Amino acid sequence: MRLLSQAVQEQENKAEFKAFLLFVQDTPEHLRELNQAEKADNVGLALLKGTQDESLPGYKINTDPTVKNTVIVYKERKATAVFVNWTPKEADQLKAAMAAVNSK
pTM for the whole thing? Predict the structure, then answer.
């Protein structure tokens, strides 16, 4: 989350760059704690109504328990990069994907 928050802050005056996270199974209290701990005020957090939430098919998010997260980089409403079970070890790939959409 910090990586995304920093990227949004860095791009604030250069491009329209936004970041948001959708949580399928969590609590509002935990999201507030997570936001505070990660210092991610530049990232929008949304809590869906579980695996049966009607908006999930639109995002094409896999809710299989083995999938811990899905990171999608968009440009003009088209996915340009997708990371499934992303970890901080892949930070360079995510940064490159974000830079690619900002350079076009």
Answer: 0.70
